[in-house]
Design brief:
The protein is an alpha+beta fold. 36% of the residues lie in helices and 25% in strands. Helix 6 links the parallel strand 4 and strand 5. Helix 4 crosses helix 5.
């Protein structure tokens, strides 16, 4: 894809008049396909099922031409950025798969740090719209978080080792790997990921 001169407006997701919730969810469904494919192969259904869960005051969005080009959340590590509602999940995924999604995704997504260091921000759910990948959206979002949140240190938890482009970007921005968690053989084979990599950044 050729680079274009996109001009992004970055702001907190609850500070825009645009209806960003569904667009955030569509980016999420596209970016987390490996985790969500069991519940539905149709990404539009996944997006509808999950659109309720985003806590917008914890998210930042990059807007171009009145559309969400990218997103990320930043919390204090003790506050959730997503909250799942089983009723909404069952509405879109059916009773069985909706119930399963409520159980399994809660364990994956509604996770707080047990011992996060003081003055540390948790950067979560970084995603870019498919048609605009490679245009620097994610790096601009993370730089915006650095400049507009009060933390001295930042962590990114559990990036799939197969997501080499994301890992390359985070390391380019100054993040360093500090933990690597191996998945069980069965789970690794099922979703095609061997390890989850955690990274940290210390403001200079």
């Amino acid at each position: 894809m050729l680079k274009e001169d996109y001009k992004f407006t970055i702001l907190r997701a609850d500070n825009t008049d645009l209806n960003v919730r569904m667009q955030i969810s569509e980016i999420f469904a596209e970016g987390f396909t490996q985790w969500l494919g069991y519940f539905s192969k149709d990404k539009s259904i996944i997006a509808k099922a999950l659109s309720h869960m985003f806590v917008l005051e914890q998210f930042y969005v990059a807007i171009v031409n009145d559309k969400v080009a990218g997103m990320t959340a930043c919390t204090d590590g003790k506050t959730l950025s997503v909250r799942l509602n089983k009723k909404e999940l069952r509405k879109h995924l059916g009773f069985f798969k909706g119930s399963m999604a409520g159980f399994f995704l809660k364990k994956e997504f509604e996770v707080l740090y047990e011992n996060i260091s003081p003055n540390t921000g948790s950067i979560e759910f970084v995603g870019t719209a498919y048609e605009i990948r490679g245009q620097g959206v994610a790096s601009q979002l993370i730089q915006y978080v650095f400049e507009n949140t009060p933390y001295n240190n930042y962590v990114i938890g559990e990036v799939a080792d197969t997501n080499t482009s994301a890992l390359k970007l985070y390391k380019k921005l100054g993040f360093e790997e500090y933990k690597r968690k191996a998945l069980s053989a069965g789970k690794a084979k099922k979703i095609g990921i061997n390890n989850l990599v955690s990274l940290k950044y210390k403001r200079k």
